[in-house]
Specification:
By secondary structure, the chain is of the alpha+beta class. The protein has 2 domains: 3-45, no CATH class; 58-136, no CATH class. It is 42% helix and 17% strand. It has 6 helices and 4 strands. It has helices spanning 40-55, 60-66, 68-78, 91-97, 100-107, 124-136; strands spanning 3-9, 15-21, 24-28, 34-39. Strands 1-2-3-4 form a 4-stranded antiparallel β-sheet. Strand 3 (24-28) and strand 4 (34-39) form a beta hairpin. The N and C termini lie far apart (52 Å). The mean pLDDT is 80.
Length: 148
């Protein structure tokens, strides 16, 4: 019998332990309570589905068709303007401070809340596409000193 334990944090920042004993993996929370057991076949099937979703040739146009909220967020971000009457503008302050980064993560990627029903949008590829497009829509930093 071979046992392996790995630790990670879930989307709610709880510590999750993955305990694998031979063919079965059991995920437990920080107090040791089982969350769910997965057989090797279930893990393999989930990995195959994940690999297929990651290799799918996803585009921005397809993402906004799959979830129009992504387009709504993009339009909101496009509405952010650099007020030239102010001494400086920082795109990073807008991105992080106004919560746009969190909004992207709630819509696409691994940590969507609530869980994104479309598997293609729960991929790193979808997150990277939306993150890049949305962050790129912000005005450039000006006189803020963050090198953005």
């Amino acid at each position: 019998m071979t046992a392996k334990t790995k630790y990670r944090h879930d989307a709610e920042d709880r510590v999750i332990a993955s305990v694998s004993i031979d063919e079965i993996t059991c995920y437990v929370d920080e107090d040791g309570s089982p969350i769910r057991e997965y057989t090797k076949e279930e893990r393999d099937a989930a990995q195959k589905e994940s690999d297929a979703a990651e290799s799918y040739p996803l585009t921005w146009e397809e993402i906004i068709k799959l979830d129009p909220r992504v387009s709504d967020l993009y339009r909101e971000i496009c509405g952010v303007k650099d007020d030239k009457s102010k001494k400086s503008f920082c795109a990073n302050t807008a991105w992080y401070g106004d919560g746009f980064k969190d909004d992207v993560g709630n819509l696409v990627g691994f940590s969507t809340k609530p869980k994104q029903p479309n598997r293609l949008l729960r991929t790193m590829k979808a997150y990277d596409i939306v993150y890049g497009k949305c962050y790129g829509a912000l005005p450039n930093c000006r006189n803020c000193g963050c090198y953005g």
